[in-house]
Design a protein that fits this description.
10 strands, alpha+beta, 426 residues, 16% helix, globular
Length: 426
């Protein structure tokens, strides 16, 4: 992970640029070592014999099968040790489904391996020869009542310990760490204690600690977890619409920005030279009030690295196309519209919570308009995809799908689509 830089300083000697924590992906026809991450083509699953349910690959508008926009190697061994992760973004090919909710969907695949460290601990518990220890005198019921002494033997226990690494690795690398143990183990209350207490309402408990995560989710509506639907068999490839051409994400670089913000477009209205300065000021105020500053920031940031097709930062913040649509309003409450470099989320978001485990979702990756140019480079005509960006939010716990046999699961994640608003742009 690149070091954090303040927006007012940089590591360069001439102090003329800033490096952010956002990884930029660029499309290439030539494959590199990472053949997993790509635009277009057909999805490859964690195990070809265990594909997801076909229901996850159907448009929610017309129920037709969808095609792949993005597949990304999402391994984060420092954050999720022992987890093999894949991210998928699918879209419907039908023109009549465009601009409709459910015509673009996002999936997360995860395979969880048993941690070698945990296995080693379990093996040591089973096979380690206990050392003899001096028995301590204790009160024994049989001895007290019947005068029979029972010899006591004690065994030394091997304590279980976990270790975790918080560094986030490059998501475009095919290498993954399967050695560290799972740091998310929790300890429950004794059964006797649970049985001795009557059911209590968590909302009325005055002694419950208020964590940072709970404070962020106070405004979220209660989530009702629904049982998973029965899986549908994966269709044959001939049943899918034509796929987009394949472009590999062969390069991944941290975003480099000019130190100074690009200025907003200047006043281009013809003003009467004889007009007073007060009239010119009023005209300028009216003009600037019509500019969508969120979109201008979006365009300026992309213009500095115009060939980027994806932007990646786990737990970061997306670059919004607009703050006025439903997606933009989920993030625009952070009050950071005029901050040039956004490196990490500090105020949370209002994305829907994970439907599988109820945990909060965090931003991970988004597609940029240049991806459309690459995917539709062989298309005839100009009537193509009409989104400005596709934002993917994922479960912050990287949870496993419930009700599956084995160690592989696929879950639908949140896809926030910001559609083009060509008629409203100035």
């Amino acid at each position: 992970m690149a070091p954090l830089y303040d927006s007012d300083s940089s590591g360069a000697e001439d102090n003329d640029y800033t490096e952010t924590n956002v990884l930029l992906g660029y499309a290439s026809k030539a494959a590199s070592e990472d053949t997993i991450s790509h635009l277009g083509g057909r999805p490859t699953w964690l195990d070809p014999t265990t594909p997801p349910s076909a229901a996850l690959a159907k448009c929610k508008v017309c129920n037709d099968l969808m095609v792949l926009l993005l597949e990304l190697n999402g391994d984060l061994p420092g954050t999720f040790p022992g987890h093999e992760r894949r991210l998928y973004v699918l879209t419907c090919r039908r023109k009549t489904c465009r601009r409709k909710e459910g015509s673009i969907r996002a999936l997360r695949g995860v395979r969880i391996f048993e941690s070698p460290k945990e296995k080693k601990v379990e093996d040591s518990k089973e096979y380690t020869k206990p050392e003899p220890a001096v028995a301590k005198p204790t009160i024994n019921i049989g001895e007290t009542l019947f005068g029979v002494k029972t010899p006591l033997n004690s065994r030394s226990a091997n304590p279980f310990s976990t270790a975790s690494n918080t560094n986030i690795s490059n998501p475009f690398s095919t290498s993954s760490s399967k050695i560290p143990s799972n740091p998310f183990a929790t300890a429950g209350l004794p059964a006797l204690e649970l049985a001795s207490k009557p059911p209590q309402n968590p909302s009325s408990s005055p002694d419950l600690p208020k964590s940072f995560a709970s404070a962020l989710s106070l405004n979220n509506e209660p989530l009702t977890l629904e049982p998973p639907s029965p899986p549908e068999p994966w269709p044959q490839e001939c049943n899918f619409p034509p796929a987009y051409p394949v472009y590999y994400l062969a390069e991944a670089d941290y975003e480099i920005l000019d130190k100074e913000d690009l200025p907003l477009p200047t006043q281009t209205m013809d003003l009467d030279e004889g007009g007073g300065s007060s009239n010119q000021k009023e005209d300028k105020d009216v003009y600037e009030s019509t500019i969508d500053k969120t979109f201008q920031k979006f365009a300026d940031r992309l213009a500095q690295n115009p060939e980027q097709v994806i932007r990646y930062e786990f737990r970061g913040e997306p670059l919004l196309y607009s703050k006025h649509d439903a997606v933009g309003k989920l993030f625009s409450s952070s009050g950071k519209e005029h901050v040039k470099v956004t490196t990490t989320s500090e105020t949370g978001n209002r994305m829907p919570r994970c439907g599988n485990c109820g945990a909060a979702r965090v931003f991970e990756v988004q597609l940029t308009p240049h991806a459309i140019m690459e995917l539709e480079s062989e298309e005839v005509g100009l009537d193509g995809m009409e989104w400005g960006t596709v934002i993917m939010g994922v479960c912050e716990r990287d949870c496993m799908q419930k009700g599956v046999d084995g160690d592989i699961g696929y879950l639908e994640e949140w896809a926030g689509v910001q559609w083009e608003e060509l008629n409203e742009r100035r």
